[in-house]
Each structure stands twice: as C-alpha cells, then as structure tokens.
UniProtKB/TrEMBL annotation:
Protein name according to UniProt: Retinol dehydrogenase 8
Coiled-coil boundaries: none
InterPro entries: 17beta_DH, KR_dom, NAD(P)-bd_dom_sf, SDR_fam
A Pfam family annotated for this UniProt entry: adh_short
Protein residues bound to substrate: S141
Ketoreductase domain span: 4-190
Positions that bind NADP(+): 10-38, 64, 158
Keywords, sorted A to Z: Lipid metabolism, Oxidoreductase
Annotated catalytic residues: Y154
Family: Belongs to the short-chain dehydrogenases/reductases (SDR) family.
Molecular function terms from GO: estradiol 17-beta-dehydrogenase [NAD(P)+] activity
Cellular component GO terms held in the UniProt record: cytosol
GO biological-process terms attached to the record: estrogen biosynthetic process
Length: 318
C-alpha cells in the first residue's frame, strides 16, 4: 500500500514533534509526514529527533495556523494537494484570573486554538470530500469536555473545537471523511512551562488579593503536582494518536488518560451540573491536602514502576 501523507501542525515541540517523529520512523513505512511549524527557524529539535527520516519520510514546511495564506501556500506545495490525514495540533495555553488576562491575549488564543482549526479544515476538507476519503485528527483536550478552574479561556477554546467537530462529523461521514478528537489530560511539554512563565509575569494587582492567592498558592501548586503525577509524555500521546490514525474505523473521541475519565463522566451522571461543580469545589478548597497526598502516592508508585522497568531492562528482559 502507498504511504499515507500526514500533515501535522505545530511540530517545533511537544506532541506535534513526537507524533511527526513517531510516524516518520514507522517500521512499516506507512507514512509520509509533512511536519509544519510557523517558524522553521525552530526546526532544530525536530530535525535532530527525526534523524535519517528527515528528507526521506519527513519533510518540514512553514505553516502558521493564524495565517490563511501560509496554510494555502503550504498545501499548494503538496503534489495534488493530496493530504490523507490532517493532524491539527498547534495550540497555546492560558491559565489565571480573568482580570489579569488581556482581551488581545484571549483573542490570540481563540484565533490559534479554534480558528486555526477552522482555517485548516476549510482548506483541506473540500479536497478530501472531492476524493471521498481522508481523516482529520484534532488534538483537543480533556478540557474540551470539562472546564477546570482558572482555565476559563483555554477550556472555552477547546469546547469550541469539540462543538465544531461534533457538528461537522456527520456531514464529513457522508463523504467518507473521518474526524477524530484526541483528548489528553496534562502532558509534560513546553506548554506547562509556558503557563508558569506567563503566571510569573502576570499583574496580580488587577485582581483581588484573595483570588490572586487562590491562583498562585492553591492552583499553581496543585497544577505542578497534577502534571508530575498524572502527566503523560508527548510520546504517549503520539502512540495514542497513531492508534487513532491506523484504526479501520476511527473513533470520534479518544481520551488518552484513564485517570481523567471519571471527571469527564460526572457531568453526564448529573445533568444539573451540581455533582461535578461540587466535586471540583471540594477538591480545590476542602480536600486539597488529601489531593496532594494522593498525587504524591501516585508519584511514588510511578517512580517504583519505572525502577522495576529499568531493573528488568538491565537484566535483559524486554
Ligand atoms: N501539554 C498539555 O498538557 C496538553 C496539550 N494539549 C494540546 O496539545 C497541543 C500541542 O501542545 P503541546 O505539544 O503540549 O505544547 P507545545 O507548547 O510544546 O507545542 C505547541 C506547538 O504549537 C505551535 N503553535 C503555536 N501557535 C501556532 C501557530 N499560530 N501556528 C502554528 N503553530 C503554532 C507551537 O509553535 P512555536 O514553537 O512557534 O510556538 C508549538 O509547536 C495543543 O493544541 C494543546 O492545546 C492538550 C491537552 C494537554
Ligand atoms: C485535576 C485537578 C486539578 C488540575 C488539573 C489540571 C492542571 C489539568 C490540566 C490539564 C491540561 C493542561 C489540559 C490541557 O489541555 C486541580 C484544579 C489542581 C485540582 C482539582 C483536580
């Protein structure tokens, strides 16, 4: 079978980079990867990780999801504009009290996370419909299903992504085009560090001292622990996404972190929303010590599992 052409956005770091490398180094050579990024000056890490795949099964192209002409130019440079799989991955995060965030920053986030996807789909879907085949894979988030305190704008952008895809999927199916949402929980990438850097620069005089205190001393501290205990690696997400891409009948939704499934299910268990709001309120304000203790226990278990794995490898087990 001819290799599938997969175009991925946001490949300078994190999930996009890991996925591009995973697909390009596929042992069965099933993919030809077009790894895109808005600034090709940032391609060093990808080129290094791709190794000999660069120039063979992987090529790097410029694409800014906020710029229609850059998307068009990139697609026009692909023979026959033929993309089998589009992976919409590029995205930015934002966390903190609303009062400390500028409207311009919020609009930039929506422009990247939501309209970036819309621009891509507008450009790629007509070709896929004409060919009666294709797959659009969207890196959404668990926050596309359930908001998390202080992530108001980011969660809104991922809800927008989910609503857009949920509506479009039925029409697309008529043309044999699949749409899949990949919904990770926390993933340890530059995304996390960028949030903390942003939080350091924020002007907390724009909010009241109590809110500033809850964000900096409760949320940020717990968030670090959540990433350290429950965070997946970008390589984990690449494996999950590969499974979605290679599925004979791709799922519409795919959660990557089982630890978050109950959280996302709560809202469906109680349509009034009281159950999930109450659970979050208690976790954040009442049982934060229990939360931290549980997260520490998980970290310890993970560390032990890692040591067992390393030991087994040293002893020659796979
Ligand atoms: N990390 C996490 O905890 C989670 C992340 N996600 C989602 O995963 C996706 C990837 O994030 P992740 O790998 O973690 O984070 P990274 O910050 O490591 O990667 C984000 C990528 O998006 C790119 N990007 C940002 N703006 C644009 C743009 N306008 N055009 C093209 N590329 C752009 C960045 O490029 P540049 O280097 O130029 O800034 C970078 O390559 C995002 O959609 C994010 O929302 C979902 C769940 C959890
Ligand atoms: C679970 C949980 C928390 C934090 C979760 C975080 C920080 C999740 C991050 C998810 C990301 C980054 C998704 C990206 O798309 C709190 C509020 C600390 C306490 C209550 C339980």
């Amino acid at each position: 079978m001819a290799p599938k052409t997969v175009l991925i956005t946001g490949c300078s770091s994190g999930i996009g980079l890991a996925l591009a490398v995973r697909l390009a180094r596929d042992k069965q050579r099933r993919f030809r990867v077009i790894a895109t990024m808005r600034d090709t000056g940032r391609s060093g890490a990808l080129a290094a990780a791709a190794g000999p795949a660069l120039g063979r099964t992987l090529e790097i192209k410029q694409l800014d999801v906020c710029d229609e002409s850059s998307i068009r130019a990139c697609l026009d440079s692909v023979p026959g504009r033929h993309i089998d799989v589009l992976v919409s991955n590029a995205g930015v995060g934002m966390a903190g009290p609303l009062e400390c965030q500028s409207l311009a920053a919020m609009q930039n986030l929506m422009d990247t996370n939501f309209f970036g996807l819309v621009r891509l789909v507008k450009e790629v879907l007509p070709d896929m419909k004409r060919r009666r085949g294709g797959h659009i894979v969207v890196i959404s988030s668990i926050m596309g299903l359930q908001g998390i305190v202080f992530n108001d704008i980011y969660a809104a952008s991922k809800f927008a992504v989910e609503g857009f895809c949920e509506s479009l999927v039925v029409q697309a199916l008529r043309f044999n085009v699949a749409i899949s949402l990949v919904e990770p929980g926390p993933v340890t990438t530059e995304f996390e560090e960028k949030l903390y850097e942003e939080a350091k620069r924020a002007d907390y005089s724009r909010t009241d001292p109590e809110t500033a205190d809850i964000f900096t001393n409760l949320y940020l501290r717990n968030s670090r622990d959540v990433f350290a205990s429950l965070g997946q690696t970008p390589e984990d997400i690449a494996e999950h996404t590969l499974r979605v891409i290679e599925a004979a009948r791709p799922p519409f939704r795919h959660q990557t972190n089982a630890a978050y499934t109950p959280m996302a299910a709560l809202k469906h268990a109680d349509p009034s929303g009281a159950l999930v709001t109450d659970a979050f309120y208690k976790l954040v304000f009442k049982y934060d010590a229990v939360l931290r203790l549980s997260l520490r226990a998980i970290r310890l278990l993970r560390w032990k599992a890692q040591k067992v794995k390393e030991g087994a490898r040293l002893l020659g087990f796979k």
